[in-house]
Amino acid sequence: MSATVDGPAGYFPAIEKKYGRPVQEWKDLIRSSDLTKHMDLVNWLKTEHGLGHGHANALVKHTLDEGR
Asked: Pfam families recorded for this chain (predicted)?
């Protein structure tokens, strides 16, 4: 039986499957952006990279929590 991952990381398998890129690539992209505010980054991922709101939000939250 595998452990359930809670929080933003719980979305990571679905993000990788849906968008075909590893989560680390998305996190690197977020870190390379000049944007710094959470919602600015979420909206950027949605408009420029076609992510859904929940997936973009999870990636940004997890990345910002780790530190840029």
From this structure: DUF4287 (PF14117)
Is residue 3 included in any domain, yes or no?
no
Those residues whose C-beta lies under 8 Å from the C-beta of residue 22, and which sit 6 or more positions away, are 16
Res 67: pLDDT:
84
Range of the domain at 57: 9-66
**Contact, 60 vs 45, CB < 8 A?**
yes
Count of domains forming the chain: 1
Q: In this structure, is residue 50 part of a structural domain?
A: yes
| Residue reference for tokens 């595998």 | 2
pTM check: above 0.70? yes
